[in-house]
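BUG: 3D viewer hangs when loading the predicted structure for this chain

Environment: internal workstation, default settings.
Expected: structure renders.
Actual: progress bar stalls at 90%.

Input used:
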Amino acid sequence: MEGSKVLTLELTIQDLFSQMKEHSYYLGEALKSDQKVMELAAKIQASDDDDSVLKDFIQAGGTKLGNLLSRVLGKTSYAWDADKTKLTFTTNAVANFMDSQKDTLKDNMLNYLSYYVLSKWLNLIKPDECQRFENLLVEIEEDMRQLGAQRDKPKRTVSTPTE
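Structure tokens produced before the viewer hung:
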């Protein structure tokens, strides 16, 4: 497509699991201070045994993230690699998308997907805790809208008159 640039951004499942499990760990630890919910607190802490369920949530979250990127940047598709160890998002962004924002965008994508998975995980175990992460998703969506709206200024070209 003329006037666009292709952005390819990858997220590894390892990074997603690491961030999501870290959040679930700290949430579970905070709840362990109350002896009445000690067992529930342990269940909140996602482990490697839960990876297949978490990958299902990642699948659904990848679709949502792709749709979000389509709205804020341009038509986006995503795919798993053969081993299901990473997700690759490919976006047709506007030509003057600020390349300097790619790392920030990727960080937001990682946060979005890990919070999405965590909210779905908590919905299974302790539904009243998932709202916190759903609220974070709304904040990240707004951040991504702002990133998508930023543009590089066009470079002025100087033409010399021909005789």
